[in-house]
Design brief:
194 residues
Length: 194
């Protein structure tokens, strides 16, 4: 696999994390670089780790993993996105950003769910790597680094535009997550081919 092919793959794999990072940026009212870096590190590490796990598991579990990965991503992203929409529409949150408590927004439990949800498809990429002539450690390191950079940029983009749009941005961010999960599900079921 050439560096160009790996870069294209890394950007493609990181797009889910980028979209969720944009949503994260919407929720952070007082953004500092370390907050964006925290999001980037969670997503980058999981986007690197999942292909590594997939590579290790190899072909022996391919059918079992690919049979349910789209359902897992759909359920997690729909729950998270739905919760964002509900919070944005609740009376208590009408005049506030979605999350005033940065510790809660960047808590390991919250970030773990998001990191798994956005990187589950990368597991299948790792399984594919097991069948190709790929130097796995440089490949997953590159994917992780690209995802980290895209995610940090996504947090800043979301923060900048989210402060102006508030509730509408929260609803849009939640809808993006739900639609992303639905797209993953429909693609894997063969209903759409994008």
């Amino acid at each position: 696999m050439s560096l160009t092919e790996l870069f294209i793959l890394a950007v493609g794999v990181s797009m889910d994390a980028f979209a969720v990072a944009v949503c994260k940026g919407l929720c952070l009212s007082d953004l500092k670089f370390k907050d964006a870096l925290t999001v980037g590190l969670w997503f980058g590490i999981f986007q690197a780790g999942m292909p590594l796990i997939g590579y290790i598991l190899g072909a022996q579990f391919r059918e079992q993993i690919t049979a349910i990965d789209h359902w897992i991503a759909f359920i997690l992203l729909s729950l998270i996105g739905g919760n964002m929409i509900v919070e944005a529409c609740s009376e208590d949150e009408k005049d506030e950003l979605c999350c005033r408590d940065k510790k809660k927004e960047l808590a390991p439990k919250t970030m773990l769910v998001l990191a798994v949800a956005t990187s589950i498809d990368a597991l299948a990429v790792g399984i594919t790597f097991a069948f190709l002539d790929v130097a796995i450690l440089p490949a997953v390191s590159f994917i992780g680094a690209v995802t980290l950079v895209c995610s940090v940029a996504g947090v800043y983009i979301g923060h900048r535009f989210g402060l102006k749009l508030k509730t509408k941005a929260e609803i849009t961010g939640g809808a993006i997550l739900v639609l992303m999960g639905t797209k993953i599900l429909l693609e894997h079921l063969g209903i759409i081919n994008i």
